[in-house]
Amino acid sequence: MRWFASSSTDRVSERDALGPLLPPALLAALSGLDLVSAARRRRSSEGVHPALRHGREEEFFQHRPYVRGDDLRAVDWRASARTGHPLLKERHQPARRPLTLLLDTTLSMQFPEGRSKLRQAKVLAAALAFLALRRGDSVEILVLRGAGFERVARLRPAPRALHAISSVLEPLEASGESDVAVSLERTASSVSRHGLAVLLSDLYGDEGRLFRALSTLRRLTEVAVVHVLAAEEKELPAGGGTLRELEGGAVVSVDAGATRAHRVRVAQWRERLRGGTQASGGEFVDADSSEPAVDVLTRWLGRIP
To answer: Which residue from 47, 86, 173, 189 puts its CA 20 to 30 A from 73's CA?
Structure first.
């Protein structure tokens, strides 16, 4: 089965942006990243995409259109000339590893103004979806709304799917209140098996239930948790003042002593989240809301040698 349809209406130019979340500069930065790199470091003896069938490495599998970041040495120039757009030769058939993106869109994610946690989560989700689709894997996008995660898109590898990433994610806005742990418990059993599930959230909620939900999810698929926080949540303003709760809206007063105590509590909380996620079998990734998305991904996935 072909990876991409060959229709000229589905062509992707390497010079084009793939919507506001995937501008050319970000696409160029993603060229050296592979969504399976982190798992490869853990299982260096066997890639995450082992061949479905054995055969010589030079055995031809299929053509697929060139997308930004592909190795130009793999372009089949003769076939490209016949079709009018660049085609790559794939040498083996990789096993598919569906990606499930679980995106927290509750009210706390709209903080701070400007570069919000939700904005960072959407950019990271778009980049991960791009990497998966470029690899040839399907992508499901679920968002946290009200009582649980709701599926908003299912994308299969095709140039039109690459363009659909931003159109699905960009309009999402923060709304409502929900416990991410409770919602994940309800959703875990419906996530695609034998793939990768990535939760992008500030993780406000019941820690114990979160770790239990991650353990359940890990029995079905690989799991990564991207913890998105703002610098203003890690460090309160020096000298104290008043703060409004992110969900609920209550106003509380803080003094210098409370500021110092808050810093310690947040650091301890983050370490508990990291340790609990790893004990549940998942990967834990820190992501500041103002940090370039490619820096977060490079720290997690590492560059391809």
So the answer is: 47
Closest CA to 222 of 16, 41, 3, 22: 41
- From CA 276, how far away is CA 92, in angstroms rounded? 38
Cβ atoms of 86 and 66 closer than 8 Å: yes
Q: How far apart are CA 175 and CA 138, in angstroms?
A: 27
Output the six-digit token pair for 190: 């419906």
Cα distance from N-terminal residue to C-terminal residue, the chain: 30
Residue 55 has pLDDT above 80, yes or no: no
Q: Which residue has the higher pLDDT, 245 or 104?
A: 104
Examine the pLDDT at 303 and tell me if it is beyond 60: yes
- Alpha-carbon gap, residue 70 to 88, rounded angstroms: 8
For the four alpha carbons of 170, 4, 191 and 227, in that order, the dihedral sign comes to: negative
- DSSP structure class, residue 3: S
Nearest one of 78, 58, 35, 9 to 197, comparing CA atoms:
35
* Cα distance between residue 223 and residue 213, in whole Å: 11
Show the tokens assigned to 176.
């409502």
CB burial of 139-175 (b: ≥16 within 10 Å; e: otherwise) equals bbbbbbbeebbeebbebebbbebbbbbbebbeebebe
pTM (predicted TM-score): 0.76
Cβ contact 162:18 at 8 Å = yes
290's CB contacts (< 8 A; 6+ apart) are 115, 120, 230, 231
Rounded distance between C-alpha atoms, residue 221 and residue 164, angstroms: 25
